[in-house]
Amino acid sequence: MAGRETVKTVPAVQSEPRSKGERTRERILDLTYDSVIRKGFASTSIEEIVEAAGITKSGFFYHFKDKTDLARQLIERYADENRSFLDDMSARARELSDDPLHSFLIFLKLYAEAMAEMADTHPGCLVATVTFQDMSWDHATRRMTVDNVLDWRGRFLAWLEEIAEVYPPKGKAELADLADAILAFTYGGMTLAKALQDNSAIARQALMFRETVRLHFLG
After folding, report:
1. What is the pTM of this model?
2. Which residues of 44-78 are buried (b: 16+ CB within 10 A; e: fewer)?
């Protein structure tokens, strides 16, 4: 899986410092995320978020029209972070190899490493929370969550189809099912890690899936 192209070093872009208002908004979203994951959206009140953030109610409503707006902005940020995370990792993997299968195997190795590092700071899965507490969220927010899942599936399925054109599959599994498996072991791995107090759960599942993909296309 050695890289076939020279990886170019790109100078880091200095981001503009965030304003106090932007930092406050991010703080509110962080607190909301943690509370929603741990006890649900219905049990998370604006009052407790305001108190935890150390702001006034008027400060809260400066950033969010109401609790529904807070939920939608939370999902939007979650989706944006996921896209950025996957885009950056996919780009890195494709830089290291122009072979679609090898680059995908590299991606899964990078993904496993990232999940192992993230386990300590990632309290749970927002997708699972919205899905299983669907009565607590409005239709638009639930739809945003579904679209986020479909985006994950679509990008992985496209990559697997690209691989299949070069390496006709040896296994019988449908490519769509393989794409869904990435979501399954990620979301399910968070539950496993939490239940067993084992932060390596998602990483181990990712590496197991990596071997499954290798065998599926190479035999």
Report:
1. 0.84
2. bebeebbeebebeeeebeebbeebeebbbbbbebb
